[in-house]
Amino acid sequence: MYSHFDSNIWVTPFGLIFVLAILTAWAYTRRNATVSGIDASHIDLLMPIAVIVAIAGGTVVAMFMPMDHKIAGEMMNYGIRLRLFGMLATGAVAVFIYSRFNKLSFGQLLDIFALPTMAALMIHRFGCFLAGCCWGDLVSHEAKTSLATQVQTLPFLNGLSGGIQYPPGSLPFEQHVALGLIEPGALASLPVVPVQLYEAALLFVVLLALWRFPWREYPKGTLVVLVTCTYAIMRFFIEYLRADGSIIMGNLTVTQLLCLLLLSSAFLLPSMLKR
């Protein structure tokens, strides 16, 4: 996701929805803490710490992954990009450190944060949709470029779904210009898959499915492992419909490789939490 923090416009739909997502997660996490017997004041202190650390961590991770130019040449080498998995990992580190200082169960805190994090991401995807970041593959145009796989991973899906066009200056527009798919003076980008809305819909289904899961009756850390595996599997396949990921191994993007790493590490998490 691109933060747009370097823009001259201080208030954007992306930013407002990002704040709404954080506030929703905050309220939801406070509720989970209360029903789990943990004072909600811990959440009021921990949430802003985790968010700040997560944003900083996601930015630092991006500095070690300068591969944005690979999605359409140097024209697409934009500035700050927040890496979602970097944010989640560093946010979890903040939760771990807080749990040690306050003698709370790390696994229980992760369970408390698990579904609220999914809810926040679901809301945030609407901001991505409006901002044009995390955009999807071409819908109906055959890409004949060296990076055709980048913007049309599953060409057999051409025309099966409606698309959305973005205006000049947007990331999809700049990508299509850089690849020579449209002229710089075009009025809009080519139609792309509204993959952000697809992911939001899938996250909503996951939230409904896990809403009444009796996670407090299971060993601590069970819910976060379930949520992690579910999102990793879902994101792995969603990635095939996105055009903003750098393909680095076969037909797999960096994010897909991270999803595989998450799936493998999730099975180790329960034993780590016991320790």
Task: Quickly list its features.
mainly alpha; two-stranded antiparallel sheet; 10 helices; 2 strands; elongated; disordered N terminus
Short structural description:
By secondary structure, the chain is mainly alpha-helical. The chain has helices at residues 13-35, 40-63, 84-101, 106-131, 148-151, 171-178, 195-210, 222-238, 254-266, 269-274, and strands at residues 247-249, 252-253.
Can you offer a commentary on this structure?
By secondary structure, this protein is mainly alpha-helical. The chain has one domain (13-139, 195-274). Helices cover 56% and strands 2% of the residues. It contains ten helices and two strands; from the N terminus they run ααααααααββαα. The protein has helices spanning 13-35, 40-63, 84-101, 106-131, 148-151, 171-178, 195-210, 222-238, 254-266, 269-274; strands at 247-249, 252-253. Strands 1-2 form a two-stranded antiparallel ribbon. β1 (247-249) and β2 form a beta hairpin. α1 packs antiparallel against α4 (106-131). The longest helix is centred in the middle third of the chain and has 26 residues, at 106-131. The protein is elongated and about 60 Å long. The chain starts with 12 loop residues before the first helix and ends with a helix. The model is unreliable at 1-6 (pLDDT under 50).
Strand content: under 5%
Instruction: Please tell me what the overall shape is.
Output: elongated
Mean pLDDT: 82
Report the span from N to C terminus.
34 Å
Instruction: Let me know the number of strands.
Output: 2
In sequence order, what are the helices and strands, one letter per element? HHHHHHHHEEHH
Helices and strands: which structural class?
mainly alpha
Task: Calculate Rg over CA atoms.
Answer: 19 Å
**Low-confidence runs of at least 5 consecutive residues:** 1-6
Sketch the major β-sheet. Answer: 2 strands, antiparallel
Q: What is the number of helices?
A: 10
